[in-house]
Design brief:
Strand content: 15-25%
CATH superfamily of the largest domain: Creatinase/methionine aminopeptidase superfamily
Number of helices: 20
Oligomer: single chain
Number of strands: 28
CATH architecture of the largest domain: Alpha-Beta Complex
Number of domains: 3
Largest sheet: 6 strands, mixed
Structural class: alpha+beta
CATH topology of the largest domain: Creatine Amidinohydrolase
Length: 631
């Protein structure tokens, strides 16, 4: 996140008690529990009164903005404001006498702690889906409202089907009833837009638009709506700061098969420089011009492509209502953006080496200070940010740092708050999942550290997670293989012990864009083929409720595999992340020779690439932390 420069102490001797940084303070509210008790009860009651006034039986509140962004502006945090749940994925349904919050496996523990169990039932977001609850709890003649700007057309269709099964009606509202009772709702963001130069982007806008127009032709469409701000940012080589952690300029664009595209963005975000940059390749109009522009094109009967994942149901309704043909499918830009060019690859390699220096200094600090019992989870977050800021290149953290020790580490997407902040004590495991946004690349790394002597169970589980991590890192697979075909490699050793983890093994990562980028991923649901140039995380884990959490995460670049005599193109992974893996948690007897060789080679590479950039004390720590392990 952009922040004013601030003087820092030399971090080789960072004090145990750290001052809160401006960056940490700016986003600490995203860690905090929202208002609870009376305030939340009053909000739910006010919403029900508003629904009654509109003659609605209920209303659906997704954790979403108009573009389905992972991180949303404060003005879009309707779900957190109403329920108290602050996770990045969820949905609520409020009926006259019942209300339910739906979350996935990552947030089950968090949701139970944050919402009022007397007011809200906590249900599954995946299996069964919310639509099952809706159809079971609605009655014939009921009217369930939804905001068509906050749901994709596929989500709206599922809700409509659920209402039909119950004999009820799904009603698209003209204005959101939550907004009507949220009297102190923040204003929409107006962060300045910056040009993302070709020295970082690698390819200019003209070449990207030529690629996109070729894809529009393949779709049989006349135009494509860029409903994803990531796609707009990538296409026109711009970045912004409208949401936390991802350098997004919230915006839309319309790219015709023939002719000049149009960008819809609030002009107050644009300097003369950025306006001139955009106008070289597109017309620039205000956001409220999008609807009439789309309607004018649709009136000609045009086929207009929309992205299944990010296009609001309202866009589909608008196009169809004006006589056009909505062409629903995958946004072709998502795949173009996911395959990094040579400049982006070089940039991310540089960013990871820079980040590795900060990580080494941080891990050495934790190893030195945590056994005293004086550090807390918040201290760890602040220290890591300090080391990254000392690089002089940090733009933002790429997501709120997960700093969990003891039982907090078992909460997959834990966010430390002043209330939950736990002291790091001997005998604990400390799980740190963090990332950085640099102009030349985005990082994401998780390390689990032993504080004091780990138990045998901790070492067993850690080693099983490590073996799965190594299996992904060493994988060689035919070109066209998808993430679902690789996912089992990461889980096999955990499965052998009768345990598993409730999240994907890996997600795509952007180039100074989203740390969670589609369409490729390594998971049971990962159907997109992995292509050379894609960057994905490799992060198996294990979580013992009320005990401890373990996760080991590196980022991997898909590259060509060099196999003599191969009868088809084969791919492999090149590890980008450079940080020690805690040797104290490894049961060497459980590793095969090949696994041990991989670990020792990885640590040797960390020493060689990171060591020369470190101060003498930290380099000595790194040499010890990456020393060769023997069978």
């Amino acid at each position: 996140m952009p922040d004013a420069p601030r003087m820092r102490p030399h971090c080789g001797a960072i004090p145990i008690i750290l001052k809160w940084s401006t960056m940490f303070e700016a986003h600490f509210q995203t860690f905090e529990e929202p208002e609870a008790g009376v305030a939340l009860t009053a909000r739910l009651a006010a919403l029900r009164e508003e629904l009654a006034r509109r003659k609605l039986t209920g209303f659906v509140i997704p954790r979403a903005d108009q573009q389905q962004n992972e991180y949303v502006a404060p003005s879009e945090e309707r779900l957190a404001w109403l329920t108290g749940f602050t996770g990045s994925a969820g949905l609520a349904v409020v009926l006259t006498r019942e209300a339910a919050l739906f979350v996935d496996g990552r947030y089950t523990i968090q949701a139970a702690k944050q919402v009022d169990a007397k007011a809200w039932a906590v249900e599954s977001l995946i299996d069964p889906p919310p639509e099952s609850w809706v159809s079971a709890h609605l009655k014939a003649g009921d009217r369930l409202g939804f905001d068509p700007w906050l749901h994709t057309f596929a989500a709206a269709e599922r809700l409509a089907a659920a209402c039909t099964r119950a004999g009820a009606e799904l009603v698209a509202v003209d204005s959101n009833p939550v907004d009507a009772v949220w009297h102190d709702r923040p204003q929409p963001p107006l962060a300045p837009v910056a040009v993302h130069g070709v020295q970082h982007a690698g390819i200019g806008e003209a070449e990207k638009l030529a690629q996109i127009k070729s894809e529009i032709t393949k779709l049989g469409a006349d135009a494509l709506v860029l409903s994803d701000s990531h796609a707009v940012a990538w296409t026109f080589n711009i970045r912004g700061a409208d949401v936390a952690h991802t350098p997004l300029p919230l915006s839309y664009a319309l790219v015709p098969k023939d002719g000049r595209p149009t960008i819809f963005i609030d002009h107050r975000k644009l300097s003369n420089l950025t306006r001139d940059h955009l106008e070289q390749s597109a017309d620039v109009r205000e956001p409220d011009a999008m609807a009439p522009t789309l309607m004018a094109l649709a009136k000609s009967g045009a086929a207009i492509a929309l992205d299944n994942a990010t296009a609001a149901d309202a866009l589909s309704r608008l196009i169809a209502g004006a006589g056009g043909k909505p062409v629903r499918g995958s946004d072709p830009i998502a795949l173009l953006k996911a395959v990094k060019n040579a400049t982006e690859i070089k940039g991310t390699q540089t960013a990871h080496r820079r980040d590795a220096v900060a990580l080494a200094r941080f891990l050495a600090f934790i190893d030195r200070e945590a056994p005293s019992g004086k550090l807390t989870e918040i201290d760890a977050v602040e220290a890591l940010e300090t080391f990254r800021r000392d690089t002089g290149a940090l733009k933002d953290v790429s997501f709120p740092t997960i700093s969990g020790t003891g039982p907090n580490g078992a909460i997959v997407h834990y966010r430390v708050t002043r209330k939950s902040n736990r002291r790091i004590a001997p005998g604990d495991l400390l799980l740190i999942d963090s990332g950085a946004q640099y102009e030349d690349g985005t990082t994401d790394v998780t390390r689990t550290m032993a504080v004091g002597e780990p138990t045998g169970e901790m070492r067993d589980r850690f080693t099983r997670v490590l073996r799965g991590h190594i299996a992904i890192a060493r994988a060689i697979f035919p070109d066209g293989t998808n993430g679902a075909q690789l996912d089992t490699l990461a889980r096999q050793y955990l499965w052998a012990a009768g345990v598993d983890f409730e999240h994907g093994t890996g997600h795509g990562v952007g180039s100074y864009l989203s740390v969670h980028e589609g369409p490729a991923r390594i998971s049971k649901l990962g159907t997109t083929p992995l292509k050379r140039g894609m960057i994905l995380s490799n992060e198996p884990g294990y979580y013992k409720t009320d005990g401890f959490g373990i996760r080991i995460e590196n980022l991997e670049l898909v590259v060509a595999a060099d196999i003599k005599g191969a009868e088809k193109p084969m791919n492999a992974f090149e590890t980008l992340t450079l940080a020690p893996i805690d040797r104290r948690l490894i049961d060497v007897a459980m590793l095969t020779k090949d696994e041990l060789d991989w670990l020792n080679a990885y640590h040797a590479r960390v020493r060689a690439e990171v060591g020369p950039a470190l101060d003498e004390a930290t380099k000595a720590w790194l040499d010890q932390a990456t020393a060769e392990l023997k069978a």
